[in-house]
């Protein structure tokens, strides 16, 4: 099977699971689970296709919606078995982020031929579903967590784009990029890796401004 197709379905399914887990934390009914799973699973890819002017992937192939629904239903009946649903959500989000960062870069590169566009679509595809999930659930956005997040998606997109430009075939380029993104995000979750943050400085008093 095409490695990108595997990443596509994996990204949709894993992000759908994180959406359903968010619904479980809010104690929603099964319709809420299905809604959160669908929106989270398809959100990033939808934004990517709209930006690139492509047919929206789940409209072309409704199987993706069925995958989201199946995952949402499964989580509805099994979420209570998980000891720490938020921790599982974060690790599944890391898998989805890694898969979708690579896929988004591949689609962007194929559609535009531009490495810069590939990096942007990789990041958008990987992060937008999680942003929507947290916004709808009223949870602190994963973007605001102290450890690395967007940089992990950018790493995966950059590794794939670089490997493609270097002439690597699809399978090794995808595997390398996925591993790189997951290593960065997984390391951030496990060891608290961060990038330097902005530190505010005291502003000047009005009378000191010439």
Can you walk through the features of this model?
By secondary structure, the protein is mainly α. Helix 1 packs across helix 2 and helix 5 runs parallel beside helix 7. The longest helix is centred in the middle third of the chain and has 28 residues. It is globular. The termini are far apart.
Binned strand content: under 5%
Summed over residues and divided by their number, the pLDDT gives a mean of 92
Task: State the low-pLDDT regions, or none.
Answer: none
Determine Rg (CA atoms, Å): 18 Å
Helical/strand content category = mainly alpha
Largest sheet: none
Helix content range: over 70%
User: Could you tell me the number of beta strands?
Assistant: 0
> What is the count of helical runs?
8
Principal-axes geometry comes out as globular
Give the arrangement of secondary structure elements.
Layout: H1 3-25, H2 30-52, H3 57-60, H4 63-78, H5 85-112, H6 115-137, H7 150-165, H8 170-191
Fill in the keyword field for this structure.
single chain; 8 helices; 210 residues; mainly alpha
């Amino acid at each position: 099977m095409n490695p990108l197709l595997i990443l596509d379905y994996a990204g949709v399914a894993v992000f759908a699971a994180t959406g359903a887990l968010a619904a479980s934390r809010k104690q929603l009914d099964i319709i809420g689970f299905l809604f959160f799973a669908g929106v989270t699973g398809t959100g990033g890819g939808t934004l990517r296709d709209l930006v690139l002017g492509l047919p929206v992937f789940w409209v072309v192939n409704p199987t993706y919606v069925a995958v989201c629904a199946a995952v949402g239903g499964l989580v509805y009946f099994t979420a209570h078995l998980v000891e720490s649903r938020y921790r599982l959500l974060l690790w599944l989000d890391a898998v989805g982020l890694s898969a979708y960062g690579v896929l988004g870069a591949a689609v962007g590169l194929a559609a535009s031929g531009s490495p810069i566009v590939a990096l942007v679509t990789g990041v958008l595809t990987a992060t937008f579903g999680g942003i929507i999930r947290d916004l709808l659930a009223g949870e602190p956005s994963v973007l605001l967590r102290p450890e690395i997040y967007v940089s992990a998606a950018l790493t995966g997109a950059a590794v794939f784009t670089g490997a493609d430009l270097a002439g690597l075939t699809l399978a090794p380029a995808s595997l390398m990029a996925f591993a790189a993104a997951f290593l960065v995000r997984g390391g951030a979750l496990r060891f608290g890796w961060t990038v330097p943050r902005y530190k505010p400085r005291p502003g000047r008093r009005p009378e000191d401004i010439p």
